[in-house]
Amino acid sequence: MAWKSQGGGPWGGGGGGAGGPWSGGNSPQPPDIEELLKRSQDKVKSFLPGGGSGKRLLLFLIAVMGFWSLSGIYRVEPGQQGVELLFGKYVKRTAPGLHIWFPSPIGDVIKPDVERTNTLNIGFRGTGDVTRGTGRDVPLESLMLTSDQNIIDIDFGIQWRIKNAAEFLFNIRDPELTIKLAAESSMREVIGQTPLEAALTVKRQSVQQEAKELLQKILDEYKTGVAIAEIQLLKVDPPQEVIDAFNDVQRAKQDQERSVNEATAYANDIVPRAKGEAQKMIQAATAYKEKVVKEAQGEAERFLSVYNSYVAAKDVTTRRLFLERMQDVFSKSEKVIIDRGSGAGGGGVVPYLPLPELKKRSGGQ
Fold first, then answer.
1. Is 27 in contact with 21 (CB distance < 8 Å)?
2. Distance between CA atoms of residues 159 and 4, nearest Å
3. 185 Cβ partners below 8 Å, 6+ apart?
4. In principle, which of 30, 72, 197, 288 could form an S-S bond with 103, CB 3.0–4.6 Å?
5. Which residues of 65-91 are buried (b: 16+ CB within 10 A; e: fewer)?
6. pLDDT for 209-233, tens place per residue?
7. Going by DSSP bridges, is the β-strand pair 73-76/97-100 parallel, antiparallel, or unpaired?
C-alpha cells in the first residue's frame, strides 16, 4: 500500500507517532489566534499618543464616534427639499432648515432644488428665437394633424418645477425625456381636436391651457413629482412647404370677408332708411284715412241732426236753413244796403257811407 510506504497512514508521522496534519516534524503549525490579536493591538497602540493605554483608547474611540455622528447634521437651503435615505432606501422628506440624520454610510441626504424653473423646448433645438427662424426645427416633434385633416407646425416651450422631490428622484429614470414625451402626446391630442384656422387664430390660449391641464394629469398619474408651470406656443404655422399657398388662401379669405363686411354695412345703412320711409308712408296714409273717416262721420252726424230738426219742425227748420245760407252767401260778397223808406212811394235815397271800401283802403295802406 502507498500509505504503508510512507509510514502510518495518509497523515504521515512515522510508524508509532500520532499522525495528522498538525503533528511534529516538518508539517506546518496552526496559526495562534491570541498572538495575532496581541500583535494587532500593539500596532493600534503605536499610532495612539502616549502608548495607547486602555482609557485613552476609549476616549479616542468616543471622539471618533462623536465626529462621525456630527457628520449627520445637515442643512436644507431655502428653495430646496431634503430627501433622507437609510441604507439607500427612501424614508422621508424634510423642509428647509437644520436636521439630524444617520451619518454616511448608514444614511444619506439628497437636496434637489424644488423652486428652480426648468425649461424644455419641443419642436426645435437651440437657444435662438424660433419665431425668427434662428432655432433648428425638428419636424418629427413639431408636425401635427388637426381635426380638419390639415398639418400644422407647432413649436412650444414647457416650464416645469419639482413639487415632490422623492417621487421625482425615485419614480422616473429620465425626468426630461418623460416630460417631453408626455408633452408631445398632450399637445397632439389637443391639436387633433382643434381645426387649423382656430389653432392659428382664436384658440391659441385655449390650446395652451388644455395642453397644460392634460400634461399635468398624465404626470400626476405617473407620480413624477413634477408641476407644470406654463406651456407657451412659440410658433404656430402651416408646414414650410405649403406656407405660401396657405398665405394666398388667407389673403383671399380676408378679401372675401372685407367684401362681405362692406356689403353688410351697405345693407345696414339702406335697409333701415327704406324701412323708415315705408313706415312714414304707412303712418301718413293711416292719418289721412282717419281724417277722411272722421270728416265723413262728422258730415253724416251733422246731416242727421238737421234732418231730425227738420222732421220735428219743418217750417222753422226751413227758415233757419234759408237764413244760414243767405248769411253764408252775403258774408262772402260786398253789399250796399239802401233803405227805400216807409210808405208806398218810398223816400229818398239815404246817403251811403262805403265802409267796406274805406276798410280796404286803410288795410292796404
1. yes
2. 89
3. 218
4. 72
5. eeeeeeeeebebeeebbbbbbeeeeee
6. 999 999 999 999 999 999 999 999 9
7. antiparallel
If you count them, how many residues does the chain have?
A: 365
Interior angle at CA 249, CA 245 and CA 252, nearest 5: 140
Query: What is the per-residue pLDDT across 157-166, written as a single tens digit (0 to 9) for each?
Result: 999 999 999 9
Closest CA to 109 of 88, 127, 130: 88
Strands (E), the chain: 73-76, 82-86, 89-94, 97-100, 107-110, 118-122, 124-125, 136-137, 143-145, 151-162, 226-237
Q: Which helix (H) or strand (E) holds 165?
A: helix 165-170
**List of residues 6+ apart from 161 with CB closer than 8 A:** 114, 115, 116, 117, 118, 226, 227, 229
Encode burial over 300-331: b for 16+ CB neighbours within 10 A, e otherwise.
Answer: eeeeeeeeeeeeeeeeebeeeeeeeeeeeeee
Q: Which three cell numbers stand for residue 171?
A: 419614480
> Please, which residues bridge with residue 159 across strands?
119, 230
- Give the contacts of 122 (CB within 8 A, at least 6 positions apart): 141, 142, 155, 156, 157, 158, 180, 183, 184, 187
**pLDDT tens track, the chain, 365 positions:** 343 334 444 444 444 444 444 444 454 566 676 777 677 666 656 655 555 556 766 776 777 777 777 777 888 888 888 888 988 888 888 888 888 888 888 888 888 988 899 999 999 887 655 555 556 888 888 899 999 888 899 999 999 999 999 999 999 889 999 999 999 999 999 999 999 888 888 899 999 999 999 999 999 999 999 999 999 999 888 887 777 777 777 788 888 888 999 999 998 989 998 999 999 999 999 999 999 999 999 989 988 888 887 788 888 878 888 888 888 887 777 666 666 555 555 555 556 666 666 777 776 55
Q: d(Cα 247, Cα 199) in Å, to the nearest integer?
A: 15
Within 10 angstroms of residue 169's Cβ, the number of other Cβ atoms is: 17
Other Cβ atoms within 10 Å of 243 Cβ, number: 12
Angle between helices 204-222 and 175-191 (to 10 degrees): 140
